[in-house]
Protein backbone atom coordinates (compact mmCIF):
# COMPACT_ATOMS: atom_id res chain seq x y z
CA UNK A 1 0.00 0.00 0.00
CA UNK A 2 1.25 3.50 -0.84
CA UNK A 3 1.98 6.58 1.24
CA UNK A 4 0.91 9.96 -0.17
CA UNK A 5 2.59 13.32 0.27
CA UNK A 6 0.61 16.41 -0.65
CA UNK A 7 2.35 19.53 -1.98
CA UNK A 8 5.92 18.36 -1.60
CA UNK A 9 7.38 20.91 -4.09
CA UNK A 10 11.11 20.02 -4.17
CA UNK A 11 11.11 17.79 -1.07
CA UNK A 12 10.10 14.43 -2.51
CA UNK A 13 10.53 11.48 -0.13
CA UNK A 14 11.60 8.06 -1.46
CA UNK A 15 8.90 5.39 -1.42
CA UNK A 16 6.10 7.96 -1.20
CA UNK A 17 3.74 9.16 -3.90
CA UNK A 18 4.90 12.79 -3.98
CA UNK A 19 2.49 15.36 -5.43
CA UNK A 20 2.35 19.08 -6.12
CA UNK A 21 0.98 21.64 -8.61
CA UNK A 22 4.31 23.30 -9.43
CA UNK A 23 4.92 23.95 -13.14
CA UNK A 24 8.38 22.43 -12.61
CA UNK A 25 6.68 19.02 -12.93
CA UNK A 26 5.82 19.79 -16.56
CA UNK A 27 9.14 21.53 -17.28
CA UNK A 28 10.96 18.38 -16.11
CA UNK A 29 9.14 16.30 -18.74
CA UNK A 30 10.32 18.42 -21.71
CA UNK A 31 13.93 17.65 -22.68
CA UNK A 32 16.04 20.81 -22.62
CA UNK A 33 13.27 23.05 -21.24
CA UNK A 34 14.99 23.75 -17.92
CA UNK A 35 18.30 24.53 -19.65
CA UNK A 36 16.59 26.92 -22.06
CA UNK A 37 14.73 28.71 -19.24
CA UNK A 38 18.00 28.99 -17.34
CA UNK A 39 19.83 30.43 -20.36
CA UNK A 40 17.00 32.95 -20.88
CA UNK A 41 17.28 34.07 -17.25
CA UNK A 42 13.82 32.69 -16.36
CA UNK A 43 15.17 30.03 -13.99
CA UNK A 44 17.80 30.61 -11.31
CA UNK A 45 20.88 28.44 -10.81
CA UNK A 46 19.48 26.59 -7.78
CA UNK A 47 16.29 25.55 -9.58
CA UNK A 48 18.23 24.58 -12.71
CA UNK A 49 20.51 22.32 -10.62
CA UNK A 50 17.40 20.67 -9.16
CA UNK A 51 16.12 19.95 -12.66
CA UNK A 52 19.51 18.62 -13.72
CA UNK A 53 19.47 16.34 -10.64
CA UNK A 54 15.96 15.06 -11.42
CA UNK A 55 14.31 16.53 -8.31
CA UNK A 56 10.96 17.14 -10.03
CA UNK A 57 10.96 14.02 -12.22
CA UNK A 58 9.35 11.92 -9.49
CA UNK A 59 6.69 14.43 -8.51
CA UNK A 60 3.15 13.85 -9.76
CA UNK A 61 0.71 16.67 -10.51
CA UNK A 62 -2.32 16.71 -8.21
CA UNK A 63 -4.72 19.58 -7.56
CA UNK A 64 -5.89 19.38 -3.94
CA UNK A 65 -9.15 21.19 -4.69
CA UNK A 66 -10.31 18.44 -7.10
CA UNK A 67 -11.09 14.74 -6.55
CA UNK A 68 -7.81 12.90 -6.02
CA UNK A 69 -7.06 10.46 -8.89
CA UNK A 70 -6.69 7.64 -6.39
CA UNK A 71 -8.92 4.73 -5.39
CA UNK A 72 -10.91 4.71 -2.16
CA UNK A 73 -8.96 3.20 0.72
CA UNK A 74 -5.75 2.84 -1.30
CA UNK A 75 -3.35 4.87 0.87
CA UNK A 76 -1.79 3.98 4.23
CA UNK A 77 -0.40 7.38 5.27
CA UNK A 78 -1.06 10.90 3.99
CA UNK A 79 1.24 13.77 4.94
CA UNK A 80 1.22 17.48 4.20
CA UNK A 81 3.25 20.29 5.75
CA UNK A 82 2.08 23.90 5.74
CA UNK A 83 -0.51 23.32 3.02
CA UNK A 84 -4.00 23.85 4.46
CA UNK A 85 -3.38 27.51 5.28
CA UNK A 86 -2.84 28.12 1.55
CA UNK A 87 -6.30 26.77 0.67
CA UNK A 88 -9.53 28.74 0.82
CA UNK A 89 -11.78 27.31 3.53
CA UNK A 90 -14.14 25.58 1.08
CA UNK A 91 -11.17 24.04 -0.71
CA UNK A 92 -9.65 22.91 2.59
CA UNK A 93 -12.74 20.84 3.38
CA UNK A 94 -12.69 19.35 -0.14
CA UNK A 95 -9.06 18.35 0.37
CA UNK A 96 -9.69 16.91 3.85
CA UNK A 97 -12.62 14.84 2.54
CA UNK A 98 -10.46 13.49 -0.27
CA UNK A 99 -7.76 12.54 2.23
CA UNK A 100 -10.37 10.70 4.30
CA UNK A 101 -11.68 8.93 1.19
CA UNK A 102 -8.33 7.61 -0.05
CA UNK A 103 -7.07 6.47 3.36
CA UNK A 104 -7.40 2.78 4.14
CA UNK A 105 -9.01 1.71 7.42
CA UNK A 106 -6.37 2.22 10.10
CA UNK A 107 -4.62 4.81 7.91
CA UNK A 108 -3.11 8.01 9.28
CA UNK A 109 -3.28 11.59 8.05
CA UNK A 110 -0.69 14.01 9.43
CA UNK A 111 -1.18 17.65 8.60
CA UNK A 112 0.93 20.49 9.88
CA UNK A 113 0.07 24.18 9.70
CA UNK A 114 1.38 27.42 11.21
CA UNK A 115 -0.03 27.58 14.74
CA UNK A 116 -2.24 30.66 15.08
CA UNK A 117 -2.04 30.50 18.88
CA UNK A 118 1.76 30.50 18.70
CA UNK A 119 1.74 33.47 16.32
CA UNK A 120 -0.57 35.46 18.59
CA UNK A 121 1.34 34.55 21.76
CA UNK A 122 4.54 35.81 20.13
CA UNK A 123 3.05 39.04 18.83
CA UNK A 124 5.18 42.11 19.53
CA UNK A 125 3.63 45.59 19.28
CA UNK A 126 7.10 46.85 18.31
CA UNK A 127 7.20 44.47 15.34
CA UNK A 128 3.63 43.85 14.11
CA UNK A 129 4.89 42.91 10.64
CA UNK A 130 6.13 39.55 11.94
CA UNK A 131 2.61 38.48 12.95
CA UNK A 132 1.10 39.91 9.77
CA UNK A 133 3.62 38.06 7.61
CA UNK A 134 2.87 34.81 9.46
CA UNK A 135 -0.87 35.26 8.98
CA UNK A 136 -0.90 36.50 5.39
CA UNK A 137 2.43 35.56 3.77
CA UNK A 138 1.84 38.88 2.05
CA UNK A 139 5.31 39.13 0.50
CA UNK A 140 4.37 36.47 -2.06
CA UNK A 141 3.05 37.72 -5.39
CA UNK A 142 1.41 34.44 -6.36
CA UNK A 143 -1.97 33.82 -4.75
CA UNK A 144 -1.26 30.11 -4.24
CA UNK A 145 1.68 31.01 -1.98
CA UNK A 146 -0.29 33.36 0.26
CA UNK A 147 -2.14 32.23 3.35
CA UNK A 148 -5.91 32.08 2.92
CA UNK A 149 -6.76 30.93 6.46
CA UNK A 150 -5.06 30.19 9.79
CA UNK A 151 -5.68 27.34 12.22
CA UNK A 152 -5.40 26.50 15.87
CA UNK A 153 -5.92 23.10 17.45
CA UNK A 154 -9.70 23.47 17.79
CA UNK A 155 -10.36 24.75 14.28
CA UNK A 156 -8.11 22.12 12.67
CA UNK A 157 -9.86 19.42 14.71
CA UNK A 158 -13.27 20.66 13.54
CA UNK A 159 -12.11 20.72 9.90
CA UNK A 160 -10.93 17.11 10.08
CA UNK A 161 -14.06 15.96 11.90
CA UNK A 162 -16.22 17.65 9.25
CA UNK A 163 -14.30 15.61 6.66
CA UNK A 164 -15.30 12.36 8.39
CA UNK A 165 -12.45 11.69 10.80
CA UNK A 166 -13.68 10.58 14.22
CA UNK A 167 -10.32 10.45 16.00
CA UNK A 168 -8.10 13.54 15.78
CA UNK A 169 -5.11 14.33 18.01
CA UNK A 170 -2.50 17.02 18.43
CA UNK A 171 1.05 15.64 18.27
CA UNK A 172 4.57 16.86 18.88
CA UNK A 173 7.37 17.39 16.39
CA UNK A 174 8.48 14.06 14.87
CA UNK A 175 6.15 12.13 17.19
CA UNK A 176 3.00 10.34 16.09
CA UNK A 177 1.68 7.38 14.10
CA UNK A 178 2.50 8.59 10.57
CA UNK A 179 5.41 6.83 8.86
CA UNK A 180 8.80 8.49 8.22
CA UNK A 181 8.32 11.49 10.54
CA UNK A 182 12.09 11.92 10.90
CA UNK A 183 12.16 12.66 7.15
CA UNK A 184 8.89 14.56 6.90
CA UNK A 185 8.60 16.90 9.91
CA UNK A 186 11.04 19.77 9.37
CA UNK A 187 9.57 22.91 10.99
CA UNK A 188 9.55 22.46 14.76
CA UNK A 189 8.92 26.05 15.80
CA UNK A 190 5.53 27.71 15.44
CA UNK A 191 3.94 24.64 13.84
CA UNK A 192 0.77 22.83 14.85
CA UNK A 193 1.10 19.06 14.30
CA UNK A 194 -2.19 17.19 13.90
CA UNK A 195 -3.01 13.58 13.12
CA UNK A 196 -6.34 12.06 12.15
CA UNK A 197 -6.99 8.35 12.05
CA UNK A 198 -9.28 6.45 9.64
Structure summary:
The chain has helices at residues 24-27, 33-39, 45-52, 89-102, 116-121, 128-136, 153-162, 181-184, and strands at residues 2-6, 17-20, 59-61, 75-81, 103-114, 167-171, 191-197.
Describe the structure.
- There is one protein chain.
- Helices cover 31% and strands 22% of the residues.
- It has a domain at 65-197: Vaccinia Virus protein VP39 (Rossmann fold), CATH 3.40.50.
- It has a seven-stranded mixed β-sheet.
- The chain starts with a strand and ends with a strand.
- It contains eight helices and seven strands; from the N terminus they run ββαααββαβαααβαβ.
- It is globular, with a radius of gyration of 18 Å.
- Strand 4, helix 4 (89-102) and strand 5 (103-114) form a beta-alpha-beta unit.
- The protein has helices spanning 24-27, 33-39, 45-52, 89-102, 116-121, 128-136, 153-162, 181-184, and strands at 2-6, 17-20, 59-61, 75-81, 103-114, 167-171, 191-197.
- With 198 residues, the chain is an alpha/beta fold.
Biggest sheet layout:
7 strands, mixed
Number of helix segments? 8
The whole-angstrom Rg is: 18 Å
Report the portion of residues in β strands: 15-25%
CATH topology of the domain at 65-197: Rossmann fold
Strand order of the largest sheet: 3-2-1-4-5-7-6
Top-tier CATH class of the domain at 65-197: Alpha Beta
The level of helicity is 25-40%
N-to-C series of helices and strands = EEHHHEEHEHHHEHE
CA(first)-CA(last) distance: 15 Å
Q: Got a strand count?
A: 7
CATH superfamily of the domain at 65-197: Vaccinia Virus protein VP39
